[in-house]
Write a structure and sequence with these properties.
Keywords: Aminopeptidase, Hydrolase, Protease. One of its GO terms (molecular function) is manganese ion binding. This is Cytosol aminopeptidase domain-containing protein. It is a single chain. It contains five helices and eight strands. By secondary structure, it is α/β, with parallel strands linked by helices. It has a single domain, classed as Zn peptidases (Aminopeptidase, 3-Layer(aba) Sandwich). Helix 3 links the parallel strand 3 and strand 4 (77-80). Helix 1 packs parallel to helix 4 (108-117).
Length: 163
């Protein structure tokens, strides 16, 4: 990885988080004040929240609350999930710094975020898992038709406009 970490790949379908880890490292090297990432990271987030709500997981309550509030104004539904400390052990590897998936059953959306957190450090960070609302099979309203929704763009625009 870009930051020197090693990853034990237990599932080649969980490759997006590996690339996103490098992107987070790149943002840190460019002295970002905060990092907000969006990804269709896990099917587990769809299981937890369905196709209308994105999951938010992060390390900074103020940033998370601001994103949720921005989503509310923008008409995008976001629900915060915990960055559960007790789950982190399941992402540790005997042969690398971390695994790309957990050895536990369940909590997949949280586990994906725990992987990303490894690259974040202390900077305020929020991850939006948009796997559910990123695509719809039928029009949702006047501005979101069938197909890709652009979920998160309106939330980020609202967030940036108020900073």
């Amino acid at each position: 990885m870009r930051n020197g970490s090693t990853v034990e790949v237990l599932n080649t379908d969980a490759e997006g988080r590996i690339i996103l880890g490098d992107a987070i490292t790149y943002a840190l090297q460019n002295k970002s004040d905060a990092i907000i990432d969006l990804a269709t990271l896990t099917g587990a987030c769809i299981v937890a929240l369905g196709d209308a709500v994105a999951g938010l997981i992060g390390n900074n309550e103020e940033l998370g609350n601001a994103i949720i509030a921005s989503g509310r104004v923008a008409g995008e539904k976001i629900w915060q999930l915990p960055l559960e400390e007790s789950y982190k052990e399941a992402m540790r590897s005997d042969v690398a710094d971390l695994r790309n998936i957990s050895i536990l059953k369940g909590g997949g959306a949280i586990m994906g975020a725990i992987f990303l957190e490894h690259f974040v450090g202390k900077i305020p960070w929020a991850h939006l898992d948009i796997a559910g609302p990123a695509w719809v099979d039928k029009p949702m309203n006047l501005y979101i038709g069938k197909g890709a929704t652009g979920f998160g763009v309106r939330t980020l625009a609202e967030y940036c406009a108020n900073r």
